[in-house]
Amino acid sequence: MAKYSTKVKIRATTTDCFFGFMIMNAYHKFEADTIVLHKHSVLTSYVIGENLLLSTPWYDVDHVFFPILTPSQAHWILAQFDIKQRLLYVFNSSQRTIRGRQIEEAVEPLSKIIPHLMIRSGFWKPKSTTDKEILEKPSIQIVKDISQQENGRDCRVFVIKYLEYLLYNKLQSMHEPFNTKMAHYDLAVQLYKHGKDRRQCKHDKKKAR
């Protein structure tokens, strides 16, 4: 969507849940020795746009989106990394019950590892061998006053819809309460249309030969 739609308002790409799992798995060893990232080259491949279908290298975008599973493994949130501003925005659809330390523990590993991945991939370059400022983690900002889920099971659809509304710069137009049934239906329609368009594209390519 972000890569091909002319209606999208920002230059963005995304990771997937596997990226988040690898960040969490690497984090504790990373805290002891940052060299551990050399053993996680797959993380760098996400940054340069090689590990996820239809993804874009981070140097070609201004924003990167991350679906993040909280340590309790019971709730999904969305993070948005503003590369130029070095800000990490967090969108949480259950602010009444999932908050504070739970959100910090979910986002902290990503915020600390991102600068190292940007340097390893060559997108950020230290000014000198003693440049520690470039390794400072992005500031974390919890976004308030956003549409909230009314039960304990709709966090995943909220992550997807937050991302979609952000791409079109329409987050504030998400109605409260948000119609999750319609959102599920809308996602099913989009997936069907995407599959249909891909099949048509393959058919057109074969016909062109």
TrEMBL record:
Keywords: Hydrolase, Protease. Residues 1-166 form the Ubiquitin-like protease family profile domain. Belongs to the peptidase C48 family. PANTHER family: CYSTEINE PROTEINASES SUPERFAMILY PROTEIN-RELATED, CYSTEINE PROTEINASES SUPERFAMILY PROTEIN-RELATED-RELATED. PROSITE patterns: ULP_PROTEASE (PS50600). InterPro entries: Papain-like_cys_pep_sf, Peptidase_C48_C. One of its GO terms (molecular function) is peptidase activity. This is Ubiquitin-like protease family profile domain-containing protein. GO terms for biological process: proteolysis. It comes from Abeliophyllum distichum.
